Amino acid sequence: MKKGITTSFNIIATLALFIAFTVQYASVRELNIGEGSNTIVDVLFESSEIKVLFYLFVFIIVAATLSAVFKEIWNRLLSDILTLREITFNEAYSLCFLLMAVTLY
Question: Is residue 1 in a domain?
Answer without folding.
Answer: no
